Amino acid sequence: MAVFLQQVVNGLAQGGIYALIAIGWTTVFGIVGVMNWTHGEVYMLGAYVGFFLTTYSGMGMVPALLLSMGAGAIIAVLIDQFGYVPLRKRGTLARSGFITALGLSTFLRYSANAAFSADPRVYPALMEYHPITLFSIGGTAVTINSLHLIILIGTFIIMVVLQLFFTRTIIGKAMLAGSQDMKTLALMGADSEKLIKITFAISGALGAAAGFFMGMLYTIYPTMGALAGLKGWACAILGGIGSISGSLVGGVLIGIAEALTSGFVSTGYKDAISFVIMILVLLIKPTGLMGYKFEEKV
Amino acid sequence: MEMLKVENLNVYYGNIHALKDMSLTVNEGEIVSLIGANGAGKSTLMLSIMHQIPAKTGKVLFQGKDCLTQKTFDIVKEGMTLVPEGRHVFPRTSVQDNLLLGAYYRRDKSEVKKDLNRIYEMFPRLQERRRQLAGTLSGGEQQMLATARALMSRPKMLLLDEPSMGLAPIIVDQIFDTIVRINKEGTTILLVEQNANQALRIADRGYVLETGEKTMEDAADKLLANDQIREAYLGA
Amino acid sequence: MKKIHISLRKPQAGELKANRKVIAVCVVLAAMLFICFLDDFTPSGRVIPNYFKYVIVVSLIYSVASLGINFYSGYQGDTSLGHAVFFGTGAYVTAYLTTQFSGINFWASILIGMAFSAVLSLPVAWAGSRVKGSFMVVITYGYCEIFRYLAINSNTLGGTAGMAGIPSPKIFGVRITKIPWLPSNKDGFILILMAIVGFLALFTYRIVNSRVGYALAAVREDEIAAYAMGVNVKAYKRLAIITSAVITSVAGSFYAGFTNVADPSLFGATLSITIFTMLVIGGRRSISGAILGAFIVVICPELLRYVQDLIGLPFDPWYILYGLMLVIIMRFKPEGLLGTKES
Amino acid sequence: MSEVLLSTQNLSKSFGGIMANKDINFHINRGEIVAIIGPNGSGKTTFYNLLTGITRCSGGTITFEGKNITGKKPQEITKLGISRTFQNIRLFGTLSVAQNIEIARHCRTSSTMWDALWHTKKYGTEKEENAEAVERCMEYVGIADKKDWKATNLPYGMQRKLEIARALATDPKLILLDEPAAGMNPKEKEELMDIIRKLSSDGYSVILIEHAMRVVMNIADRISVFNYGEKIADGLPTEIRENPVVIQAYLGKGASADGNA
Amino acid sequence: GAAGSSQSGSGSSSGSGSSGTAATVSEIHVGNVNPLSGDSALYGNDQSRGFGMAIEEINAAGGVNGAKIVLDDYDDQGDAQKAAQGAQKFADDDSYYAIIGSSLSNCTLAMTPITDDAGIVEMVVSSSSPSLHGCSDYFFRMAVQDDQVGPQMAKALIDKGYKSVTVLYPSNDYGNNLDKNLEEYAKSNGLTVLDSIAYNASDQDFTAICTTVKNEAPEAVALCGTVQDSSLLINQLKAAGVDAFLMGGTSLYNSKALEIAGSNMEGVGCISVYISSNPADKVQNFVSKYKEKYNETPDAFAALAYDEGYVFADACKKAMDDNGGKLTREGIMKALKETNYTGVTGTVTYDDSNEWIRDYLVLEVKDGEFQLAS
Ligand SMILES: Nc1ncnc2c1ncn2[C@@H]1O[C@H](COP(=O)(O)OP(=O)(O)OP(=O)(O)O)[C@@H](O)[C@H]1O
Ligand SMILES: Nc1ncnc2c1ncn2[C@@H]1O[C@H](COP(=O)(O)OP(=O)(O)OP(=O)(O)O)[C@@H](O)[C@H]1O
Ligand SMILES: [Mg+2]
Ligand SMILES: [Mg+2]
After folding, report:
1. Among the CATH numbers 3.40.630.10, 3.40.50.300, 3.40.50.970, 3.40.50.2000, which is that of B2-233?
2. B16 CA: nearest ligand 1 atom
3. What ipTM, to 2 d.p.?
């Protein structure tokens, strides 16, 4: 039992990072309507920025994290500016957005590969992390790594704030409306381009933060964004695309599913399992767990 | 005073010349009607006034300010707004939020609330459906919503593109009454209607468009009396 | 009253275009045959390096796959990042059958692979009838990755190393790599694959301009209207994915027969994305585009290697340029190089 | 010739709490033009969606030519001979006018991939038949000169006509038109009325949803009035015009409705 | 890979294959088909560097009978089909006399039919898949033997007196083989294998595994992965509070491990074919040069590839000498079979299947450095 719970906690911890990535995906998709495949690359670049800051300028964790998030925000905004703005101007975003994103992501990933080399990099030790005992069962302690705990709590707070922002404020509502019809949003007197830039900035900052944490926990390398980006997307879809709380639920669920698969089935199938779950959930409830159903009116 | 002035506007879709040297004025407090056949360029004119589509040459002045150098949302903030052709409600947003978005840039929260209630009185149907997603409304309900949403911004000048399309006759009457009323309250109106008869009846002046060109402009009652116009646009 | 008329297409122009297409096909055909047989007539032996022919064969194999995905991502219109499932299935079925059962020859294994792929495409069709758009992107992506992990973890399929030692196919008892009247061991493949690509092009062309093709167009444009016009949308979605899967599977089988190995990356999303972008670059719903896309994506990186050596780049520029190419094509010619414009 | 072609018995549909259609009993005879009018959101379009199987009904039955067709799939219903146009135009936008119409021939043809691949005899005859049908339908509504235009590039009025042509190409017995006159000017409305009269005289039965009273009053044999999902009245145009309930709920003060909407 | 002299394969050569017309050559081209970008680039780069350093030295010392050895890269990105394409490219070009690579077994498997067909020598220092065993006369392998390393790890644990072990291995060919052989040896020599857990080679998060291991409480844990995953495992095992003895395979002997796992490496053991602290001149000379050039301690792959360079040069020389100064591909193959060269990783000799079987060392990390285990 303790082992089972420990595995659940392990999954929860990893799920926090997935959720952080997923929220970035889902905001951009929910608002700009483009499957921003470059999100994984922002995450990777965020991790590298963090690496250079901490390794070469000896910065501490908090300032480096904030700077990486800022860099991530800028990168995401630039991606929008050079990648998607021209498409929006021509009105071809819906049709060509995804492939453009695919292209940009390939471009960024391999440019990073050329610039940073394929060698995995390691962050210097930024904080002491030690297992924190959550509770004990029958004398066995169930623990969570302190950094994981920080990430999990942080993600939760971010989720709550964003959720309130989108459902309670007029700007948030306008952003959601923009996802449905940008042109008409302008007729409401809203600067849709500005709202989109804000969206990308939020998404980029969260992606970079996730990358930074990955760097603190593991190693970083130029292609790290591929699988992580996809996992984030899977979590976002699982939770219900466009739903911020859904992202957290999706992230945590996939994290737990992976941990349980690793712990009790076989680690070899860990990644496969998350896809299986995602596909099954989508087929049973096509809108994802927390997404609402919208039927097109005929 | 001239509220809106369009001078020699030329608009193209690719190599289709959709508006040719279009000029028009709307004075403060007026209702001006635009009539013309399908494809005459009425909607194009409305959209280019709001700078939703770019014009090649020409001028659009709203209260003396050039609209073509401004973004759409700035023009809206100046006090001019458009009910676009084809409704364009936000389909996955609730009816109420659609209306609130109409008042996006207004900061007078309490007034907005009052206006919302006024709108609900005007269109009880929308109140019944205020939690429903706008995309699941019937066609006519969406048209009502689009017009109501524009009213939420309390514009100085309102452009309406076929506001009666798909509405029941009783609602059409109501919409026309509303137009007259808000006009009396001080909103200047530029109105595009297939339903030219009714449109000209409430208008002060009218313009006739044909294949992108202005072919006639006159006082509304004169146009109503014009035989050519009667035959071409009003139905014998 | 004057009306603005836009003349879309003059009939003569259309005919001209058709003629030009026929000419283009003939030129390409002649060029290929020239490449195959040139060495037979040169006194000094090899003029055209085998490496070049190798690239041509791979391009042709991918052309088959690209024509395959065209039925789904082109004519039916849904993005698939999962076609590697069918490519991999074809490759692994051929690999497994030809190495484990001496009785089953390559050609039979193609048919069995096609059958397997058809079955494996049904879940995609099922998903496609429930969700759309970006959801299908991730479902198809996940679907092929699942198979990759299965292959990696399966001992029968050789794990990460995959299966090696797949025999080259035989025709009338002669190895395709050792046909005596052909100058090199690649020419047999080139000829057969050319025939297959040609047949598929004809097949696609005729289907698209038939009742079936029109129904697919309707499904792509507007499902509800398609239903209202009496088109069984679900059935046609199924038909599109099965056709698409079966064709892609053939490419996979040839891949295994040609390279003599099949490894789990053949199920991977990377390969799926490659196949998909071939189509997108060439032009969705364009037969010549699908083939051109495959050739571009296979040949360009090889050309770039020379450039890389020439100017002494310390890294491989292909993927960087490939990403840029996608971005640029989407911006300036979103319908693809040979696709037709949608206004 | 007053044989009932289609009838519904207590047909109902609810969306969540909203009864969009409630116990609708409706019928149309062969060759008739029946108009459905009613305030916005009274459930007219929903009624069409139920008849054509696009939405599943929550209760009641639909009978077509004496057969119960409740719960049948849209494509089956089209094949049986009911065809429709859409309130929000739903053409196959990037395809040409001719292709749009040829797609509608789908339910009347049966050639397979095999026929198409080898250009069998069946394929050939069907192609010819289709070409004829396309020609005929385009001429019927007067858009033959726009044969090769892309559907989205057509002016609005033409798009509506193309929808009718497309519906016609399925060889229907019953055609459902949803606000075909919306966005048309008075002159185009006249042309439309001619087309609908022609349909009727050629033996098609027509149900027509329309807010343009001049069109409705002039061409409908009979009018049904919906309100809040219920059928509140049914009768000849002259009767409906005078019906106080209808005036109160729908027509309003300008009930005489000359040249209205 | 910036060798500017590479000629395009087309048209530049006449006469086919390895006919006897070979003249005395001034440049001996070697094709390097390896993953130089992508996830597996680590291995490809190590091999290129080691081999590159060797030929640099050889060329500086006058080359092979005056002929310079030139290494030209073909990046296979870990993709079998690309590797085969690369092999074909070099095999077609008569100026190439050998191909090195690929590091990955699946790539090498796709290459050997082509190199065999063209009669060009292919040399590898990894690609340890057993299915490559004796696949071609032209295929020479100096790789670490999976069926040796596993038992070596088990033996080291037994020698240290441990009774129980949990094996962690990546679910690829390499990991599978190591695990299989380790378990076999352990079972017949009294070491209890509590569990063997597979994971995906590209995984980073192993907390779930660590929880399982902790729960099983083995005396030792055998890490059969590559540098990256083994080092991450070491970190996470320690973080989860596993205090068993950790024993790595040959790939753990890499400076990257010290970088990633830092102080967690203290006391971790591993198997190697060489050790950079070996006082022998040859080794120290190599290590210091390598460090100077690449700013890291060479790992086993780099060392093996370095020896491979010399082995190849020796074979070329012998082939030339035996053939009146003329070099042929076949000649190199024949000469290689008679290799007897002592380098930094030991004395290289090939057996009948062109494999080199050799001795192993057991290392342990002390004071932040790999040292011979006492
Ligand atoms: N997006 C577009 N691309 C190309 N041509 C267009 C576009 N929009 C409109 N047009 C063309 O421009 C001309 C004017 O169109 P517009 O929509 O302004 O006419 P309208 O007077 O509003 O007609 P309606 O009464 O049908 O609303 C038409 O010929 C139309 O076909
Ligand atoms: N998918 C849906 N979800 C919720 N409510 C719906 C849905 N579809 C329709 N409705 C509601 O059902 C009612 C009937 O709609 P319907 O479209 O049938 O009206 P209509 O009579 O065609 O109106 P109009 O004349 O404006 O076109 C409307 O109030 C609409 O809001
Ligand atoms: Mg208009
Ligand atoms: Mg309706």
Report:
1. 3.40.50.300
2. 5
3. 0.88
